Amino acid sequence: MALQCGIVGLPNVGKSTLFKALTNAPAEAANYPFCTIDPNVGVVQVPDERLEQISSLIKPKTTIPTAMEFVDIAGLVAGASKGEGLGNQFLGNIRQVDAILHVVRCFEDENVIHVEGSVDPVRDMDVINTELMLSDMESLNKRLSKLEKVAKSGDKKAKTDLEFSQKILKALDEGLPARTVKPENEDEEKLLKDMHLLTTKAVLYVCNVAEEDLASGNDFVQQVQTRATEEGNQTIMICGTLEAEIAQLELEEQKEYLESLGVSEPGLHRLIRAAYKLLGLATYFTAGEKEVRAWTIKNGMKAPEAAGVIHSDFEKGFIRAETYHCNDLFELKSEAAIKEAGKYRSEGKEYLVQDGDVMLFRFNV
């Protein structure tokens, strides 16, 4: 599933450093604004201990993790919605992603220029959020002018679309993102989706801190957390420069280095899982002697849709799904034992696939 998280923020907050650590892709990082002009896209494996546990018990020839895409988008500045700093182009790049990782600078460093001249995370958050809302307001006003003309002709759908659009514009005028306006029916859901508004996207604030603040945070982080809570959003804290260093190490060196820091995994693993959750994603597994593989689905997918993630023929010719949960495998150690315990199930077309299910699809085309 080609779902993307866009990494956004002001220039010089650590976006490209974070992206390089995530993907080891060639995103240029430099101490000046707009060093990233075109959005860099990287595919990142989703760390999942369950996949390794399943493989240790099934012992397949290959193990394949699931993945997701991250997009490094150049830094926005105040006035971006009016074209400042190539803002229209960058806002267009944000429009294409499914969720936003908003990187906020929470460290002091006189050697790293701040585009606003000082470190103030709440101000920085407001700059980005304001530009996204202004862009949405401009987009909505254009849509409203067209809807008003059609609604005057007596078109009922145009009238209801106009009323819902006005409701969203009112929220934006009050400084509230479009995602705070909840659709009341399928027509409103479709209309909201078709609008492609920037402020409908889920947001995770990434507090980029200095290494010495990684354990307990700092006042800047507390400010971000307070504002995020007010908005109903989540935060995560990482040290971008430290993660970049860890990413360059071999696996064994990484483990030793992390042990010396007193942590069990890189902060990037937590970030990837948080982004995965932000997108409303879940994982199911297929497991056999040939391969054990993780597959990404949207939460709430039924069995035929989940089968279609593997191949469209699986969905078209779906008969049933044979399944058990990975926790059953961890407890009982083998599929034979799962069947003996009566936990191996046959599910039909209405079955909602659960995160952690191990699936075998039966189909006929």
Keyword list:
14 helices, 20% strand, six-stranded mixed β-sheet, alpha/beta, 43% helix, three-stranded mixed β-sheet, 365 residues
Structure notes:
Helix 1 runs parallel beside helix 8 and helix 4 packs antiparallel against helix 5. The strands form three sheets. The chain has a six-stranded mixed beta sheet, with helices on both faces. It has a three-stranded mixed beta sheet with strand order 3-9-8, with helices on both faces. Helix content is 43%, strand content 20%. Residues 26-37 have low confidence and may be disordered. It has 14 helices and twelve strands. The protein has helices at 15-23, 49-58, 87-95, 121-152, 156-173, 186-195, 219-231, 240-247, 251-261, 267-278, 303-310, 312-316, 326-332, 335-340; strands spanning 4-8, 40-45, 62-64, 67-72, 99-105, 202-208, 234-238, 281-287, 291-298, 318-325, 345-347, 357-363. With 365 residues, the protein is of the alpha/beta class. The radius of gyration is 23 Å and the shape is flat.
Secondary structure layout plus pairing:
Blueprint: E1 4-8, H1 15-23, E2 40-45, H2 49-58, E3 62-64, E4 67-72, H3 87-95, E5 99-105, H4 121-152, H5 156-173, H6 186-195, E6 202-208, H7 219-231, E7 234-238, H8 240-247, H9 251-261, H10 267-278, E8 281-287, E9 291-298, H11 303-310, H12 312-316, E10 318-325, H13 326-332, H14 335-340, E11 345-347, E12 357-363
Parallel strand pairs: 1-4, 1-5, 3-9, 5-6, 6-7
Antiparallel strand pairs: 2-4, 8-9, 10-11, 10-12
Structural class: alpha/beta
Name the poorly predicted regions.
26-37
Helical content band? 40-55%
The total of beta strands comes to 12
Mean pLDDT across all residues, rounded?
89
Please compute the radius of gyration using only Cα atoms.
23 Å
What is the first-to-last residue Cα distance? 23 Å
Residues in β-strands, percent: 15-25%
- Tell me the overall shape: flat
One letter per element, helices H and strands E, the order comes to EHEHEEHEHHHEHEHHHEEHHEHHEE
Spatial strand arrangement across the major sheet? 2-4-1-5-6-7
Helical region count?
A: 14
Largest sheet: 6 strands, mixed
